Structure formats: structure tokens, C-alpha cells
Amino acid sequence: MTKPTSPWKVAAERERQRELKRDAVILAAARAFRERGYHNTSLDDIAAVLHVTKPTLYYYVSNKEQMLFECFREGLGRIAAACVEARDAKASGRDRLVGVVRGYAEAITSDFGWCMVRAEDQDLSPGMSARIKALKSEIDQDIRRLVREGLADGSIATGDPKMLAFAIAGALNWIAHWYRDDASLPSSAIADRFVEFFINGLAPRTDGATAGKSP
Known about the structure:
mainly alpha; Tetracycline Repressor, domain 2; 11 helices; disordered C terminus
């Protein structure tokens, strides 16, 4: 006897397909914004990339502004996920900060990096802009917290948490101004370089590191 198909299973699969298509729309928007700029990109441009009609896009997003908002949220969400992982990790403040820096760098070099840094959240409605600013503030506070914890456990030598958080975010955000997909270094290697040059410089000096140097 053939078992009946569950209508809930069909509905769940339909919703999953809708989510995948919506993700494709947001990704196409992010790439188009990076290539042409937000104001120079139309919904017709994005629809053409996806080989759909413009009305089809409205099934997944309300307008171009919402596309930009979702690009911001996707990119910032990746950094926020790295921050959550760092909170739960059993490691020194510095080691957990390294994880956040690596996740931040990889988010900035993703397709959503341009939108996060070079698009203006002023192009969003006040409500959407406030939500993006809140996400950025949470990330900033997480970085400051990790610096404070590193100072407390001795894994970070010295520094002002606020200024270090600004310096870290500023250095990482600037990647979006020069990074290209065809760069000689992949995003993971760029993340490693920033960890090596920036974060490792926060490590306390050992006696051996200063041996032989003049006072």
C-alpha cells in the first residue's frame, strides 16, 4: 500500500526552496552593488543576472532598499556569529579575539563585504538603519569585551579596549576597499595575515624576546 504524502512535508520543502531562491536574490544583489554601486544598480539589472522578471523579485524582497538591508545583515551576521563562538570558547581573551578577527576578515572578503563598508546605511530607512547600527554596536562591544578579558587574564599586554576595538574594526573594514576576488591571496590567507600582523602584536613580550636589547 502506498503511503500518503504528508502535506506538511511538501510545505516544508516548498519553504526551503523559497529560502534558497531568496538567498540567491540577496547574493546577486550584493555582487551587483559591488560591481556597479548601489545607486547605479537597478532591479532590472539584478533580475537579468538571475534570468527572471522584475516582478519575480518582489516575491522575495519588497524593494532595492530591502536588498541592501539584507546584504548588510548577512555580512554583519557572519561577524556576529564569530563573536558568539568566541563568547562560548574556553580560551584566553586574546585567542578568542583571534577567532573574531579571522571571522571578521572572512566576512569582509565575502560577497557582502562591499555592502557592509562602502554602501551607506543612510540609504536605508530610519528603522532599518537603526537595526544595522545596533548590530554594529553589538560587534564593537564584543570586541571591547574580549580585549578587556585579555587584559585581565594577561594574554593581551596593554591597551585601551575602546581604541583597540576601533583600530581592529578600521583595519579590517579597509580590506573592502582593495580586496578583489582575483587577488593573489584567498580570503582565508588574508585573515591569517591580519591575525599575524595585528593580533599577535598584542601578545606580551617574553624575556627571550627582549634579551640582548639595550635598555
